[in-house]
């Protein structure tokens, strides 16, 4: 087990498991699966799975709501409001995503769900990592042993959701570099893409978008900028994007489709 003041990581051998089995065994609602058909490549090494988001950011026009046990409303630019509300927790590991917000940005609309516990499947090593981050300092770490038991020996729910049955067929047919299945409270998104629109890791920006490249400093974030600022620049050129914003500020988004 690895543990910092805010993040706990448990690793186990996952050579008898697959992301689909893990997803079907994971209990909860508003589940997600981010994966790739191009395994063992840079973009396809890890699959990410989660359920039961801790909070939701939902906005249209100039009003953004933070929905958890209570609801808070913020007014102004949607992406800048998201930047102000998104928890920021320093995490330094090999994993590109260890928890944070998963969702989409469309014209005048954003919808993100924040997950504090994420299951990571490493296709290179067949290692399974369960990562939990305490968003609030006083938050209690859940019993990760119970979650590991659920994932390794739990009942597989093959008919979890009709949309997931469709996704399993879709992922075989598409064989794309980016595949996603995300359940929201009232709808589910299934999609694929051949490439990332924008990726920010350790302040280095990878993108083909001219507007973002012009805004960078030799492919680096400007000193006073956050990765969500780069995302805002990308949103000016791409009408609909889906991806993640990590607690550590790392992002990866693809065109929604």
Overview of this structure, please?
This protein is of the alpha+beta class. Helix content is about 20%, strand content about 35%. The chain contains six helices and 17 strands. The protein has helices spanning about 20-25, 80-85, 145-155, 160-175, 210-215, 225-235, and strands at about 1-5, 5-15, 30-35, 45-50, 55-60, 65, 70-75, 100-105, 110-115, 115-120, 125-135, 180-185, 190-195, 200, 205, 240-245, 250-255. The strands form two sheets. The chain has a nine-stranded antiparallel sheet with strand order 7-6-5-9-8-16-17-14-15. β12 and β13 (about 190-195) form a beta hairpin. The longest helix has 13 residues, at about 160-175. The chain is globular and about 50 Å long. The protein starts with a strand and ends with a strand. About 35% of the residues are buried. The model has no long low-confidence stretch (mean pLDDT about 90).
């Amino acid at each position: 087990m690895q543990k910092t003041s805010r993040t706990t990581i448990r690793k186990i051998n996952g050579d008898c498991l697959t992301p689909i089995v893990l997803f079907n065994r994971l209990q909860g609602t508003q589940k997600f699966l981010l994966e790739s058909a191009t395994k063992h490549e840079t973009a396809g090494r890890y699959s990410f799975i989660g359920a039961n988001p801790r909070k939701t950011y939902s906005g249209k026009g100039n009003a953004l709501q933070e929905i958890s046990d209570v609801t808070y409303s913020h007014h102004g630019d949607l992406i800048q409001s998201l930047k102000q509300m998104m928890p920021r927790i320093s995490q330094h590991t090999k994993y590109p995503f260890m928890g944070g917000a998963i969702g989409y940005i469309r014209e005048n609309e954003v919808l993100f769900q924040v997950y504090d516990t994420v299951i990571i499947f490493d296709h290179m090593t067949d290692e399974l990592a369960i990562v939990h981050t305490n968003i609030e300092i006083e938050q209690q770490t859940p019993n990760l042993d119970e979650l590991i038991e659920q994932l390794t020996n739990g009942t597989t729910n093959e008919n979890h959701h009709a949309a997931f049955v469709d996704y399993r067929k879709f992922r075989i047919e598409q064989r794309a570099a980016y595949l996603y299945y995300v359940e929201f409270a009232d709808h589910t998104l299934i999609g694929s893409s051949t490439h990332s629109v924008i990726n920010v890791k350790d302040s280095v920006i990878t993108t083909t978008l001219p507007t973002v490249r012009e805004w960078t400093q030799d492919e680096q974030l400007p000193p006073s900028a956050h990765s969500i600022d780069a995302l805002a620049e990308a949103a000016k050129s791409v009408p609909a994007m889906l991806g993640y914003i990590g607690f550590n500020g790392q992002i990866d988004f693809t065109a929604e489709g």
